[in-house]
Amino acid sequence: MQAMDIEKVNSMDFGEFVDVFGNVIERCPLIAAAVWSQRPFSNLEDLEKHFFAFIDALPQSGREGILRCHPDLAGRELQQGTLSAESRREQSGAGLTSLDADERLRLAELNAQYRARFGFPFVLAARRSDRAAVPRELARRLRCPPAQELRTALAEVKKIGHLRLADLLGAHPAGL
Ligand code: 2AL
């Protein structure tokens, strides 16, 4: 997809907007559908603010639901080739598509422990990480208190969304 300016975004009809921005938050096109009603946007930051405000306004069950829409890092969907295009690019960029069997097994075990402890999948902005850091960070976050971990995980969802939006708008990603 070619980069576009904010006038182009503001001129999109509902269907086009959801096609383009529907996966800014992984597998949550409903958020883009809601954000469309808030146009016009003054710039990329303004557009992003609306995505994040929607997330922040959700009850805890909704925020957990967003986390549950994320595929595991180096999980079954990667093996089966069913990741979204964005997710595949992110996981591949972090080297997660070329793990050896031991690394894959270790991550699968950690992912399972994390899900058993918190009730939602481990989420991390893969583009800000790499194959060595992912299991390290997963092991560290496994020891965090649940309320703190929910906040951390949602901050990662926003980092992923920030980078995806910046890609679509052709902006240089800020250090979120
Ligand atoms: C992902 C994903 O699909 N892309 C990314 O950066 N992180 N998933 C996850 N569970 O963290």
UniProtKB/TrEMBL annotation:
Location of the Oxo-4-hydroxy-4-carboxy-5-ureidoimidazoline decarboxylase domain: 10-166
The protein's enzyme class: lyase
GO terms for biological process, alphabetical: allantoin metabolic process; purine nucleobase metabolic process; urate catabolic process
Localisation per UniProt entry: Peroxisome
Principal location: other
The reaction(s) this protein catalyses: 5-hydroxy-2-oxo-4-ureido-2,5-dihydro-1H-imidazole-5-carboxylate + H(+) = (S)-allantoin + CO2
EC number: 4.1.1.97
InterPro entries for the chain: OHCU_decarboxylase (IPR018020), OHCU_decarboxylase-1 (IPR017580), OHCU_decarboxylase_sf (IPR036778)
Pathway involvement of the protein, from the record: Purine metabolism; urate degradation; (S)-allantoin from urate: step 3/3
Domain of life according to the entry: Eukaryota
The keyword Hydrolase is annotated on this UniProt entry: no
Secretion signal, residue range per the UniProt entry: none
Annotated SUPFAM superfamilies: UraD-Like
GO molecular-function terms, A-Z: 2-oxo-4-hydroxy-4-carboxy-5-ureidoimidazoline decarboxylase activity
GO CC terms of this entry: peroxisome
Keywords tagged on the record: Decarboxylase, Lyase, Peroxisome, Purine metabolism
Family that this chain belongs to: Belongs to the OHCU decarboxylase family.
PANTHER family: 2-OXO-4-HYDROXY-4-CARBOXY-5-UREIDOIMIDAZOLINE DECARBOXYLASE-RELATED
Function: Catalyzes the stereoselective decarboxylation of 2-oxo-4-hydroxy-4-carboxy-5-ureidoimidazoline (OHCU) to (S)-allantoin.
Protein name, UniProt field: 2-oxo-4-hydroxy-4-carboxy-5-ureidoimidazoline decarboxylase
